[in-house]
């Protein structure tokens, strides 16, 4: 009994000294208040405002009293231009995801071999990412121009029948835009992958060499699974860039020939600011938001759901 009474005051003093979790790191919490308010008011508030007005017949100015229900969405999905833009986004997105990851990881793996002049190659590969999409689009518009671009250069070498004019061919124009996007974005993915590779313990490579495991098997079965968080992060960044692709299309083709290279972001901009049809633009932007959520929800599940299970 005496021992229990002697221990109780010590426990009470210990709990009294333990800081309340609510007041822990108060400086950091106070500093984060402006960002929290910005997220709540600007991002969430404007998102809800946009979704609400997508159900109205807003034209030049928002008209919250002109409620039309799902009419804007029905009209959106019955518009051929929007369907073409969705098809183009799907083609561009799948190809961009796969090629950016493959090219970026391959370049990172080559640079990780401690080659001579690594800093120079790293700068060269990363340099396109420093350019704006408008500049990149204009550069590749010139490169793909049949009069003085790749086609003309190859013909000057003697292949008179060579044809390479993707930007003027409605069937393959989206692939011409894809070339410019891959050229600009692969270097950034390479840097992310290289940072992940540099975080791998070198003892793994030593053990694989001792066991006689080929380098490609080490990458596929050991290194890549260890870099899952890096791949998930790169995947989210690439997907975010795909959904909002706009500048490349405007700089290279302006949506042509015809409507062959239309994308959702261009459709939204033109409906809101040129056609003065805010309701239709809001409906299209809401569908783009849904596509973003389709990417973010699986990412959040992989990042936080897996940790909770662990």
Automatic annotation (TrEMBL):
Its membrane topology: Multi-pass membrane protein
GO cellular component: plasma membrane
PROSITE patterns for this protein: ABC_TM1
Pfam families in the record: BPD_transp_1
Protein family: Belongs to the binding-protein-dependent transport system permease family.
Entries under CDD domains matching the protein: TM_PBP2 (cd06261)
Annotated InterPro entries: ABC_transporter_permease, MetI-like, MetI-like_sf
Keywords carried by this UniProt record: Cell membrane, Membrane, Transmembrane, Transmembrane helix, Transport
Cell membrane found in the keyword field: yes
GO biological process: transmembrane transport
Record-annotated membrane-spanning stretches: 30-52, 89-111, 123-143, 172-197, 218-243, 282-302
Cell compartments where the protein resides: Cell membrane
Record PANTHER family: ABC TRANSPORTER PERMEASE PROTEIN
Domain ABC transmembrane type-1, first and last residues per copy: 86-299
Name the UniProt record assigns to this protein: Lactose transport system permease protein LacF
SUPFAM superfamilies for the chain: MetI-like (SSF161098)
